[in-house]
Amino acid sequence: MAILKGPGLVARTSRDLRFMGGILRKQPFQVLVQVTNRCNMRCSFCGFWPNGVAPRLELTVADYQRVAAELARIGTFLVSVEGGEPLLRPDIIEIVRAFGERHAPVLYTNGWFVDDAKAAGLFAAGVAQVGVSIDFGDAARHDQKRRLDGAFEQAWRAVDTLLAHAPHGGKQVHVMTILMKENQDDVEKLLQMSAARGVGHCVTLLSTDGFRRSKSEEDQLPDTSLSARMLDLWQRYPHLRTFRDYLERMDAFVERGPMPACHAGEQSFNIDHLGNVSPCIERIDSVVGNVRDEPLAQIVTRMQGLDSVARCQDCWTLCRGFTQALGQGSTLRSLTDLSTRMRSQ
Fold first, then answer.
1. Closest residue by Cα to residue 165 from 129, 218, 215
2. What is the pTM of this model?
3. What is the pLDDT of residue 6?
């Protein structure tokens, strides 16, 4: 087991207090950061990889160091580091380090480029959790969806490698599964596979209406009655890390029933690989400003209370579910789920 070289106890306690303070004051507490749109896989449900740019055009480590400092002043705590495939960036460990001191960075990867050096480096830099994307219970269908032979086996190797280097073991590693019609009957098998390895498991509902999401007939939302099945799995698999509030509303979204107002832009927002800031990842075409041009606090202030966002019901992905569960001061049940199921330490 690797020695914890990231933030110490005092720093982690300070992070936790800032996080809870931000929730109670209804400040932004979550930001999604795409460090690149480039990817080695060609997933049908993703429209990010066709929109990659040359590395020289992406935000630099210095940019992220400045953004991290600005986020700390705003009160943001949870930083989701993603892509594209973030490990395509040779400086990804330094990017994580920029966020690791004052925030809780969570990195999402397809696992292809994970090795011992990267795993050790990410945890030493302060990453709180790493999620590896695995959507099917067998190699044939996973590889076909990812358009890359060997993707399934390498993803599970990545899980094992990350687990070997995680200072807090399986609490800091999880499998991330996108719930869709194609794999709705695979979820329990995948939960059994992640449980056998001693890591966590997260799920997110497929997005089909976002700006860079699939409109293909191949990619469909799951059938209804999903909520009851997922809540049953939540009870039987303690390593399923998500909010019960999130699972309960899946059916309503799939059926296009009543949903709560979205809090994107108020308590969460998105920064893409070029520095463009938008209310959320589903609406990255709604650019409010760029971190290279002006202070982030000014941009965030402009996003507050956008009526067009509050009325949007384009997704019920986990990032929205996280904000919804903890937004507007949160509920006791959500705080309980956060402090038990979802802790990384």
1. 129
2. 0.90
3. 44
